[in-house]
Structures are given as C-alpha cells and as structure tokens.
C-alpha cells in the first residue's frame, strides 16, 4: 500500500480591486448576472461569466422551476450557451458569484458536482486549462484550472 495525497493551490484576494483587469471584468459580469437569476424557491441568485478565447464574455444565471429538478445552474447555463453559439472557441475562464436578497454572499459559492464535471469537459475540449474564479463579498478565490476544484476528473470515455 502507498499513501498518496492530493494538494491544490489557489489565490485568495480580499476584493475585486486586487484582480487584474481581465479577471475583474469577468468577476463583475458574474456579479451582474446574479440579477437575471430566477430563483423564487431558494432565493439564492447565482451568476456565471465565461471568458472565451476571442475575449467575449458570456453570462448565465440559475433558473429554477417548480418541477424540480428541471431548473439549471448558472454555470451550465453560461457554458451551454457559449458552446451552442461559439462551438469553436475555447473557454479560458469562468467566474461565479452568488447573492441573497440583492447582497453578494460574503464567502464564495462553490459549484455543484455536475457543474464541475461540465467545466472539466469544456476544459478538455478547449485543450487548455480553464481558470475558475469564485467571487464572494469578503474574498475571492482563483484556481488555475478545473482540476483544482475537481480532482480525479471523470474522463475515462
């Protein structure tokens, strides 16, 4: 038997002002996207912004439905839209933000497992790492690739 260990590294920022201009624009787009969320059941408004290799930013927000689980997370809304409309453009980064009652959550909201797997697949399709920026009111976490938030990615097919 061999004892193995996984480690990840990420950057933590105290505010958006510390981000470079590209990351700041992406983070702001994710925060703004929370305003288009349809979340009458959870009141948990999530916004996502995807940066494509051509510099375009595509946003999405969570969409709930009374016929649960027919809704869709913000991350997948943005990524699926980006892939459907710009299928040949790699996704370089995704920023995610969440708010409740119009106030940005103090800590970053982390993506669900389904969204992480979709991110992993688009990262593989794009042939390069996809950065992940998780935006909270009190701190921002930046990961250099999806593997850092989803170790042992399912890619066995």
CATH first level: Alpha Beta
Nearest-angstrom radius of gyration?
15 Å
End-to-end gap: 28 Å
Instruction: Let me know the largest β-sheet.
Output: 7 strands, mixed
How many separate domains? 1
Please tally the helical runs, counting DSSP H or I stretches of 4 or more residues.
Answer: 3
Order of helices and strands: EHEEHEEHEE
Task: Give me the CATH architecture, please.
Answer: 3-Layer(aba) Sandwich
Q: What is the approximate shape?
A: globular
**Remind me, CATH topology?**
Cytidine Deaminase, domain 2
**Helical fraction:** 10-25%
The residue-averaged pLDDT reads 96
Q: Give the name of the CATH superfamily.
A: Cytidine Deaminase, domain 2
Which residues sit in consecutive blocks of at least 5 with pLDDT less than 50?
A: none
Question: Structural class of the secondary elements?
Answer: alpha+beta
In terms of DSSP E residues, the strand content is: 15-25%
Count the E strands: 7
Give the arrangement of secondary structure elements.
Layout (H helix, E strand, L loop, with lengths): L10 E3 L7 H13 L11 E8 L4 E5 L12 H12 L5 E10 L2 E2 L8 H14 L4 E5 L4 E4 L14
Parallel strand pairs: 4-6
Antiparallel strand pairs: 1-7, 2-3, 2-4, 4-5, 6-7
């Amino acid at each position: 038997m061999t004892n193995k260990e996984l480690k990840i590294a990420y950057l933590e920022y105290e505010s958006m002002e510390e981000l470079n201009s590209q990351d700041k624009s992406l983070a702001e787009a994710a925060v703004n996207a929370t305003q288009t969320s349809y979340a009458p059941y959870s009141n948990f408004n999530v916004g996502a912004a995807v940066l494509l290799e051509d510099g375009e930013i595509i946003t999405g927000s969570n969409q709930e439905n009374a016929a649960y689980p027919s809704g869709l997370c913000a991350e997948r809304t943005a990524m699926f839209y980006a892939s459907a409309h710009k299928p040949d453009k790699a996704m370089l980064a995704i920023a995610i933000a969440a708010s409740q009652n119009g106030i940005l959550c103090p800590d970053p909201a982390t993506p669900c497992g389904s969204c992480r797997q979709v991110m992993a697949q688009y990262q593989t399709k794009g042939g390069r790492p996809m950065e992940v920026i998780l935006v909270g009111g009190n701190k921002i976490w930046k990961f250099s690739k999806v593997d850092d938030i989803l170790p042992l990615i399912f890619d066995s097919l």
